[in-house]
Amino acid sequence: MPTHKKPTLFVILASATLTVMAGAIISPILNPMMEGLGVDPGMARIIITTHSIFVAFSSPFFGVLIDRIGPKQPFTLGLVLYGISGGAGLFINNYWLLLCSRALLGIGTAAIFTSITVLIFDLYEQGTKRNKVMSWRASSQSVGGVIWPLLGGFVGTFSWHFPFGVYIISIPVSLMVLLYVPRVKRDLSIPTADKEKTVLRLLRENPTLFVIYGLSFLNMVLLYAFVVFLPEVLKQLGVVSTFYVGLFISTIGIVAGISAPMYAKIRAKLSYKSIVSMSFTLWAASFIILSQASTTWFVLLSIALFGIGQGILMPAVQLWAGEMVPASFRGRITSYLGTFGLVGQFLSPIILSQMESSLGLNSVFLVVGITCAALLVLFLTLFRER
């Protein structure tokens, strides 16, 4: 196993924050962006999540590519595409053209997300070290969930276009990848024992992978319930400044960022089943509290509970999936985490907006909380760890 310098780890962790930035940095400018483009709230929400469906569609392609040539080249390409397509929003005033740029952003994000996961498996030994690095990755994503909404809310006070300029930061990061991320000499040939295996066969042999993918899907549905609907909740409570809206959204990242580094210690004592059960419990409490929130303090409590659950779940699903399959299949199997997660991100505002129009916003949160509680019971009843 190669020895790595600190710049390598820095580049990996810095890039991890960009996958969160893809949607989070423009969430605080939802209302002024909606007015600037002349669209209704539903159409404006789709701008925030359009990239996610393209992450979902393109992740398996990058999984195959990474299994064949390694992660460094797709990683670099993804960062360049991310910066160009994201930064294009600085100059776009047409709704449909902006959606096209967000689609390209999604393709770049898919390359970054899957490359990072495989790099961590390639560069760091299984066990405590890998658990720590994956938890630092989750923490970095959470830190991104703090920094980017705050920055987006701040620069958005000058113009709703300005937050799009922040995406360009990925281009210098791509240069750092070329300089500091080693091209690991991987044995990309399939071992004799694995030659007859296919992705479909692995999925049939490991049905737990569907549970893991389902968790990735649900995590993003719930996260974007906050990202997309929190500005509306806060508006009802008298908070309308884009900066303060960004501050509230970033609280999810603060809490998740604090809890994620504890993952390695938690994993040493608890099974994956126990970690997932903790997340379900925290999520259920979070949304039930949010459904009854009459002050911003209840909103903050809800955000804190959700952030803890997310902070411990993110590294768990990534490691759990990667550990279940041979190294020659990791790119493809872990790429589906992006597929399922980002489908959840894309569908979240669509599903919940339909529910909101029928039930009202508070009732939607209550239904989500009860659903999480029901899923906890189902998970504990049916799931058996191998």
Overview of this protein structure:
The protein is mainly alpha-helical and 386 residues long. It is built from 15 helices and no strands. It is globular and about 55 Å long. The model has no long low-confidence stretch (mean pLDDT 83).
Set down the secondary structure blueprint.
Elements lengths: L5 H19 L5 H8 L3 H29 L2 H16 L7 H29 L4 H28 L14 H11 L18 H7 L2 H29 L5 H18 L3 H7 L2 H20 L4 H28 L6 H30 L1 H22 L4
Helix pairs in contact: 1-5, 1-6, 1-7, 2-3, 3-5, 3-14, 4-5, 4-7, 5-14, 6-10, 6-11, 6-13, 9-13, 9-14, 10-13, 12-13, 12-15, 13-14, 14-15
Low-confidence runs of at least 5 consecutive residues: none
The rounded Rg comes to 20 Å
Mind summarizing the main beta sheet? none
Give the rounded overall mean pLDDT: 83
Provide the CATH architecture.
Up-down Bundle
- Distance from N terminus to C terminus (CA atoms, Å) equals 28 Å
CATH fold-type name: Growth Hormone, Chain: A
Number of helices: 15
Question: Superfamily at the CATH H level?
Answer: MFS general substrate transporter like domains
In what range is the share of β-strand residues? under 5%
Brief synopsis:
This protein is mostly helical and 386 residues long. The chain has helices spanning 6-24, 30-37, 41-69, 72-87, 95-123, 128-155, 170-180, 199-205, 208-236, 242-259, 263-269, 272-291, 296-323, 330-359, 361-382. It has a single domain (6-184, 197-382), classed as MFS general substrate transporter like domains (Growth Hormone, Chain: A, Up-down Bundle).
